[in-house]
Please model this.
Amino acid sequence: MRFLIYRYDPDADKTPRMQAYELDGFEDGAMLLDALFRIKAQDETLSFRRSCGEGVCGSDAMNINGRNGLACITPLDSLKEPVEIRPVPGMPVIRDLIVDMEPFYHQYRAVKPWLTVHDPEPEAEFLQSPEQRDQLDGLYECILCGCCSTACPSFWWNPDKFRGPAALLQAWRFLADSRDQATGERLAELEGPYRLFRCHSIMNCVDVCPKGLNPTKAIGHIKQLMLKHLV
Amino acid sequence: MERRHFDTLVIGSGGGGLRAALQLAQGEANVAVVSKVFPTRSHTVAAQGGMNAALANVVPDNWHWHMYDTVKGSDYLGDQDAIEYMCRAASHLVVELEHAGVPFSRLPNGKIYQRPFGGQSQDFGGDQAARTCAAADRTGHAILHTLYQQNIHAKTHFFDEYFAIDLIRDEEDFILGAVVLNIATGEPLLIEAKTTLLATGGVGQLFRTNTNARINTGDGMAMALRAGIPVQDMEFFQFHPTGIAGKGMLITEGVRGEGGYLVNKDGERFMERYAPHAKDLASRDVVSRAIAIEIREGRGCGPDADHVLLKLEHLGPEVIKKRLPGILDMARTFANVDPIKEPIPVFPTAHYTMGGIPTNRFGQVVMPLEHSAEEAIPGLYAVGECACVSVHGANRLGGNSLLDIVVFGRAAGNHIIEFLKENRYHRPMKDEWVERALSRLARWEQSGEGESVDVLRDELQRTMEHYCGVFRTEEVLAEGVEKVKALAKRLDAVRLRDQSKVFNTARIEALELENLVSLGLATVKSALARQESRGAHSRMDYPDRDDERWMKHSLYFEDGRVEYKPVRTKPMSVDTFPPKPRVY
Model:
């Protein structure tokens, strides 16, 4: 199987290059991450992030044949050759497939992603009906891999001003939580032409999310709620 | 070299580290969290089934029953004061997490959903309890993200993607912080701290097939060893009954909690023979051994008869989608089966390090010094899988690890706040102590021809799997010790071909390999020394538990010495649960 991998080490390279690798003899069901491990065993200078290897930690987001995804849950037999692997787009590259995720994390922190309750807390748990809890499904599962935001043209143009799909999904996760009491503050934070409204429903985020989540829909819900609060 | 100063340095950003950091930040301490990965990539994120607490939301329950189950589950090696403390704190701490935002699944009455898990009983060994609080089968993810979010809110200082090299210990045995490495730039940084908390997780990467993340290389335990501190009970390594066969991804015990069960090639529910009462919900060590025996005796499934099947299709698509959505994904992606229609092939897989850095129930690291066998090392704390309190003893119950990290993360935070009141200033730092830590890095600057990190790690993992697996004997373990020693020798000949300073992951893997090798030796040596079978440690040459000789904790030191200390059998307020035969 042939691979073409984006290589750049600022310590050694003036400009990025694509390096070819060829490997065979993969087991049935092998994932792209397995191939990267074998390449790294031959060439330890190849750098990429990885951890859980099962799609829950969100470390190994990369651009695979032009599409963002997680290497650990991308089956090799689903990929056309040569498999072209690049860092996720729109972020400063640190080295090889490793990008500086800080602009992404900054936007995540900016939506104040924590439950906010103003009333005194009861001694026991807050009561929440199963139906109210269902509202959080499809939201809380986000693994912050960044596949969505780094696939979003609006985020590429305005990574400092537009919150991006991942952060907005989290904004809605708290707005949708029956326990949260900061609806007004959360909506006010998202006003203006950029933070929320740079989303033009291109839906790349939905297309690439490795967990099957739908940030565009969450953004739509925020916009509707904003409208409801205006009238 | 750059220096930073904090009240507390927390190393590791899983649930234990983040729960402690939150307690400290909310207590107005200046706290830094150093982690080699972005916090939500820590392995707590992969915990599935839930967290135990006797909330009694589903069936009657109380902390004392939970305590009994935990002592019994530990095969009487757990320290009963710490177990009482943990089980009593559990309900309050689950509620605290819920208030912090954890999206627990819910019962029709709006309370937290709880499911049955292995080793749980009502009324001291009676009917099955339902004690495990769950957010579907993504409870670890839900808890870790919530704790991270609350830490952002509390303004904890995060040093993301910094690798801890070594602790600094002064002549009076105080720990003064650590030298860490900025992975992105390759520059070392000295973090001086009045208190240091290790929360670096377990060492599942010792074994070839494991349920663990690649990052679980026991860095904190190895740092403790190098600082002259022993590791406790390392011979007890948990094999989870249901890893995906041949691959290792975890399939939660929650599957059996929801009503799934194991069958052999004849379609027989074989657990009925091994644990007539609890069946598939016996303790993990019991179920793992049963699977291994079924396969050894030729009743395994598949063309190579090398696994058993976990059946859950009878639960119906509704329950599976609602309660086990992560498992549904995982089985489809990695086992190539659709659990709505067909069973999942499973095999016992290396999962959890019961042993670790010895601590008391306040999270203080303790070791034999001048005055007693359990003297606190001033300024040093450890919590979670890297620590050994010991609440899990010889076998951890499912659902008790998320509980452990939250309970002792919080307890350590509280104790640190008290310690800081008495120790208000940084102690003097000497360059030679810092140099010692830096020499660990310098060693990897040697270039030239040599062995590779990858080959050695692979050999270590195969060696541990073969010589220190589910069933053990004197002969095999002794051979294992020699093999790991030989690997430790070869480590000197390993050279890095990648000498870049920028995000050099090869260098990190080399530092991790050093940690793995020293803990591999600790594990296999402790296992060789213990001549009995208890919990996860099954010696075919010593098939019985021997309370007279062996109801004691092992302490392994870096020079290879194994010493012992007694189990703390006296609880805080209730009567001791004396050892008795363990049947499920």
